[in-house]
Amino acid sequence: MATSSSNAFVSNLGKIYGGYAGGFIGFVIILAILEQMGVPNKIIGYAFVFLTIGVYAYIGILSRTSELSEYYVAGRVVPPVFNGMATGADWMSAASFISMAGGLYLAGYGGLGYVLGWTGGYVLVAVLLAPYLRKFGQFTVPDFLGVRYEGNTARVCGVIVLFSASFTYIVAQTFGIGIITSRFLGIPFEVAIFVGLLGILVCSMLGGMRAVTWTQVAQYIILIIAYLTPVVWLSTTLYGFPIPELTYGQALNEIAELEKKLGIVKPHVAAYVDAKGQFSWVEFHNFWALVLCLMVGTASLPHILMRYFTTPNVRDARKSVAWSIFFIFLLYFTAPAYAAFAKREVYRDVIGQQISSLPAWVQNWSQVGGLLTIKDGNSDGILQLSEFVINQDIIVLSMPEIAGLPYVVSGLVAAGGLAAALSTADGLLLAIANALSHDIYFKMIDPKASTVRRLVVARALLVIVAIMGAAIAGTRPAGIIQMVAWAFSLAAAGLFAPLVLGIWWKRTTSMGAIIGMMSGFGVCLYYLIATRYFDMPLWFGIRNISSALFGMPVAFIVTWAVSLMTTPPSKEMQDFVDSIRTPKGDLAWVRGSQHE
Amino acid sequence: MANMTPAQREAHWSKTSRLMWTIMALWFFFSFVIPAFAAQLNNVVIGGFPLGFYMAAQGSLISYVVLCFWNASSQNKIDQEFGVAED
């Protein structure tokens, strides 16, 4: 795509992606026909994995670029609706797509903390941050800290927090890609990780943000079709109406009756109860803490914030956040229906049945190592609830079989999960590599570097970070979901206070922001490591996935106190903040601040 | 910076801040206040859905989408009123 044809491309986006979605649906239908004609499942699995990765690679190569603003911010031409879709894919990872509905299945109301926490943060992004960061209009989030807090100390602190949070997150994503690729290609996990790595790099390396943006739009379309298909189908066959969000109330009723019959003491819909079904303050506090940390983390994760650097103007940045939450909402408000349908099926047709006559999907999945186990503890030939153990990661993947759908739908769901994991990994990788190449290399090491050299460094760093991430994921570090939640807490504790106060409180001084940021981040990291690795007792029973509950207030209070003790920011800096708050007009740069 | 007098700038920012606080209050209400009463709300059942569960699973999410679109259009009106909306 040369620049001249790129305008034509942007003005035809609707047609191009409409044709693409139609083509993808056609492809699924053809595979469905082939399946009926007797083509083996393995071939269908291969077709889904390779064809979708092939499409992403094709877009990635078409979008190659040698211009800095194309590489870092997609030329700032991305219309709000499409940036919303790209953000949706950037945002929804393997954790949302594969694990979340399973978590709801297991935890009931408690699992809704993830649903709330991973959506509500966009209100904070929309109101507090996105439009102002867009007006600031540079390349990265640490850029903002470096200018607002006058110097490289703030910039480096920003990069440290960004790196810790995003790298933790990317290891989890690479792990997820390895699992899907190995399961559907039938290759060993360690090899699958590197196949997935190629899939990630081919999207992002040549075209940076531009390539990632247009690939993410394509990935969003696949992942949302894949997520909605089985659950809409099931809603239609069970209740005769294709909107699962309205019909699963009946499933909840049936679950409640089955719970009574089976003697389950912890109801699916009951809020803040412990395993015995009694109200528990610890559960209540942890729910609240998790929701808060995930929301604030959303508003602090640089790979999300940098998506709003790509819109044409401030007004579009605001609209784009609204579209983002809409596209994300489509998946999240469906997840509770997924969980309810699966639970109804398990309670009705699996528990209490003869073990010799269980549905086919139970038998299929119990053959896959360790994810679903059935053990007839009391040898009566009947399956009790305690004899049935299901891993949360297979609820979504096994849904097509639960619903009795053809294998092609299983392939579709796998392609969706892969799209979710790849798109998030790409966004994270770019956030890290851009911070290192732009903020550390260009701004601090070699400010005179040529465009060509900057892009070479950016690409080299991209590959290095990707390989590091894959190498660590290959060691199978424990607790993937936990790692994702940690990433949110680290970002929330380190970045939220300096970003929000920098825009909304002119009195924030550089010293205040730097010390506040590091103490918040430090407290969060300390709590996380001490409770995880050194058996430190929990503070107030708060689990370490919500470590930012302690880090965030520290960051705000320290920033506030130190700011009041130091000399107020100069008049020039206050004018600069004013210019960020005003959509129209130029920025009032502070003299001596490095910018382009 | 667009041509605003200091007084206008202050008025623009105070309207912007008021919108921010309004939305933050609604956000807090849907994120924390409603879930706090989930157990009580669950006694109300509409269309098979216990209300406390439904609010956390769907209701609050709908409110976030509405809040974000509402923020975009209200802030745009404020910017136009003060002549600082982009062309």
Task: Characterise the protein shown here.
The complex is a heterodimer of chains A (596) and B (87). By secondary structure, chain A is an all-alpha fold. Chain A has a single domain (3-345, 401-581), classed as Sodium/glucose cotransporter (Up-down Bundle), CATH 1.20.1730.10. Chain A is built from 24 helices and 2 strands. A two-stranded antiparallel sheet of chain A has the order 1-2. The model of chain A has no long low-confidence stretch (mean pLDDT 89). Chain B is mostly helical. Chain B has one domain (15-81). Chain B has a two-stranded antiparallel sheet with strand order 1-2. In chain B, helix 1 (6-36) runs antiparallel to helix 3. The longest helix of chain B is centred in the N-terminal third of the chain and has 31 residues, at 6-36. Chain B is elongated and about 55 Å long. Chain B starts with 5 loop residues before the first helix and ends in a 6-residue tail after the last helix. The chains are: A mainly alpha (596), B mainly alpha (87).
